[in-house]
Design a protein that fits this description.
Layout: E1 2-7, E2 12-17, H1 22-31, E3 38-42, H2 48-59, E4 63-67, E5 70-74, E6 81-82, H3 84-87, H4 97-104, E7 106-110, H5 123-131, E8 135-139, E9 142-146, E10 156-158, E11 160-161, E12 164-165, H6 167-177, E13 183-187, H7 193-204, E14 208-210, E15 216-220, E16 229-231, H8 236-249, E17 250-256, H9 264-273, E18 277-279, E19 283-286, E20 296-298, H10 310-319, E21 323-327, H11 336-343, E22 348-351, E23 354-358, E24 367-369, H12 373-385, E25 389-393, H13 396-399, H14 405-411, E26 415-420
Parallel strand pairs: 2-17, 3-16, 6-7, 10-13, 20-21, 24-25
Antiparallel strand pairs: 1-25, 1-26, 3-5, 4-5, 7-9, 8-9, 11-12, 13-15, 14-15, 17-19, 18-19, 21-23, 22-23
Helix pairs in contact: 1-2, 1-7, 4-6, 5-6, 6-7, 8-10, 8-12, 10-12, 11-12
Length: about 425
């Protein structure tokens, strides 16, 4: 295993290229199982999660090649059994369930793993597939889906859960419904840009989908889908993380290859705090502001403030000479980074599902432990702000979702290096 050593106190300046979206790439890679024809996916980020997904596709029988951010998949002859050893490592592997059910009318997929950030059930995925006519059983930790007798038939389905819409559940039902008979209407659908990107990919394959990007999606089933060439949208969470870094330590940090509309709520909050922003068509420039104001945020489903940016804004709050609060409504247990930041001297505490931060206090480098993907990014940001060296352990978390983050930060002037974690 590796650790990341961050030497804090360096100002950041220059530009960074934002990678393709992890949360788009994973379901889009899975959706290639819906056709026997070859699909080409461009701007696939080089991450452990995308590598796992490609390996899962290979274990299912697909042929694939990957080079320079381009993945080519031919799922000509596939089988329905997703392997436990790979699926257990990544929650997003559950999104092979929909395309396998749609094309083969059966699937066997292990209950998935991934970040430990509280209860993340898949019951809504299964409820949606059952509504389409599939029989669902759970056997020894495996989900068994069988629609081989009668096939799939369109239905009206509500996928709203207790903490909002389910993104991967929407993806799974939408993918399965593309090859179902008749019309499927998903109420309470997730409206995230990544869901729309998947829908755009499916439409290019020949699917008939309307309403993606809203809370109601209508799918008219078709007989078959064909291969396509598709480019993944930019990663709005990676972009938001670099915006936070620029707000904390930036002397004009420019993000290129972004879609500002996908970051609107994050940009609104940064502007309200007083951080200077220049927003272009596909670029955003930000600088630090020593007189920035604190903020009071509550995470919500899109287009609200994203839960995947909560930890990074906890780090940003440490840099603001004011009080801030962050309330988590999507994953109320997603605050394990708080204890690690307090080890660095952060003045913050947790009251229920709300973190209260009294910013402007000096941070000092320490040995800290990453608990999940976004928490690890927040610890990197805190390390950039702190004096001395911060050692971040369990670096594999950050490699799940940030393509070469250390190289990108070094390109902006940060001092950091990987080392063997003994």
């Amino acid at each position: 295993m590796e650790k990341l050593i961050v030497h804090g106190g360096q100002r950041l300046t220059g530009s960074v290229q934002i990678s393709g979206s992890k949360n788009s790439a994973l379901p889009i890679l899975a959706a290639t199982l819906l056709t026997a024809e070859r699909c080409t996916i461009r701007r696939v980020p080089d991450l452990s999660d995308t590598n796992y997904m490609l390996r899962i596709l290979g274990e299912l029988g697909a042929d694939f090649e990957r080079a320079s951010g381009v993945a080519t998949i031919s799922a000509t002859d596939i089988h329905p059994d997703a392997p436990y050893d790979l699926v257990r490592k990544m929650r997003a592997s559950i999104c092979v369930l929909g395309p396998l059910t749609g094309r083969l009318k059966k699937a066997r997929v292990s209950l998935p793993g991934g970040c430990v950030i509280g209860d993340r059930p898949v019951d809504l995925h299964l409820r949606g597939l059952e509504a389409l006519g599939a029989k669902i059983t759970v056997d020894g930790g495996d989900i068994l889906v069988d629609a081989s007798e009668k096939g799939l038939t369109g239905a009206r389905i509500n996928l709203m859960g207790k903490h909002g819409s389910t993104v991967l559940g929407t993806d799974n039902v939408m993918m399965a419904a593309t090859l179902a008979r008749g019309t499927t209407i998903i109420d309470g659908a997730a409206a995230e840009p990544e869901v729309k990107d998947l829908a755009d990919f499916l439409i290019a394959m020949g699917a008939r989908i309307e309403g993606a990007g809203t809370n109601r999606i209508t799918i008219e089933g078709v007989e078959e889908l064909h291969g396509v060439d598709h480019t993944v949208i930019p990663d709005r969470i990676e972009a938001g993380t670099f915006l936070a870094a620029g707000a904390m330590l930036g002397d004009r940090v420019t993000l290129n290859r972004v879609q500002p509309a996908h970051l609107q709520v994050v940009l609104d909050e940064l502007q309200k705090c007083g951080f200077p922003l220049e927003i272009g068509t596909e670029s955003i420039t930000i600088s630090a502001n020593p007189d920035a104001r604190g903020f009071d945020l509550t995470t919500q489903t899109y287009p609200g403030f994203p839960t995947d940016m909560q930890a990074q804004f906890c780090a940003l709050a440490c840099a603001v000479r004011d009080a801030s609060s962050l309330t988590e409504t999507i994953f109320p247990q997603r605050f394990m980074h708080i204890a690690e930041m307090k080890r660095m001297g952060a003045d913050m505490d947790l009251q229920g599902a709300t973190a209260r931060v009294r910013g402007g206090k000096p941070l000092k480098g320490a040995r800290v432990m990453a608990s999940d993907l976004r928490a690890s990014a927040a610890l990197v940001l805190a390390g950039l702000l702190a004096s001395g060296a911060t050692e971040i352990h369990r670096l594999y978390h950050i490699d799940r979702g940030y393509e070469h983050i250390d190289d990108k930060l070094a390109g902006l002037g940060a001092q950091l290096e990987r080392a063997k974690d003994i």
